[in-house]
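Quick one: co-fold with magnesium ion.
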Amino acid sequence: MSIKDRLDKNNIPKHVAIIMDGNGRWAKEKGEMRLFGHATGVEAVREALTAASEIKVDYLTLYAFSTENWNRPKEEVDGLMDLLVTTIANEIESLNNNDVRLLTIGNTHELPPKCKKELMNAMERTKENKGTTLVLALNYSSKYEIKTAIKTIAEKYKNGEIELTDVTDQLVDEHLFTAGIPDPELMIRTSGEIRISNFLLWQIAYSELHFTPIFWPDFKKEDFYKAVYEYQTRERRFGKVSEQLNGTL
Ligand code: IPE
Ligand code: IPE
Ligand code: MG
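Sure, here it is.
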């Protein structure tokens, strides 16, 4: 029986987030340029998206470019932006064939005009799709997202639009890029790094974390299923004790 068949269909996470890491090291190991690693990483995106669609994960969020990534050598940043433009353009048909809707989170208005244009086009053309929603985190920073939410909420308080007691978890949720998207139950990071790198800090408060040494370009559907399988073995206690969850208390 394959790992996919062993999954509990009643316990599929609604939202899986992935920090796609290790493209550069993967390429280096092969004596190739870093950009070759990024280009090959696109295949891993297809693998993860197909796997997520097949087991009906509602949201798949992929960390594609952080605000900190602008600090990389210009050649790499330009290459990544070009790759984004060509990939989005090439994938629209496949997204539509697979009923995938595209969304973005992050400061996308700061992306190069060509990227923005392709993204807008792809989002428009996939907006009616009802399967998995692919959320691309582009020029994303969690600290920026939270800071912006604090500013907006403070402004509303100052203008008398809200009271202090209105500041609930839900209100904060509504002011994040991810407004309307449930928190990820599972976050995966590839490449062996055990850190979050400024990704979805508020939203992963109770996420299960899965770290794998696999470099992103080598990530396959099976690896996605494995992560979900492992997730299903975890006991999510949310502060309670085991006995409360299994009804023996
Ligand atoms: C992840 O791979 C892709 C992006 C951050 C855009 P990296 O490019 O970070 O690869 P490593 O971590 O240097 O191997
Ligand atoms: C995180 O990877 C960002 C993305 C995957 C887009 P990085 O490679 O930029 O993270 P750090 O700098 O090693 O933490
Ligand atoms: Mg990296």
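If it helps, The chain has one domain: 9-232.
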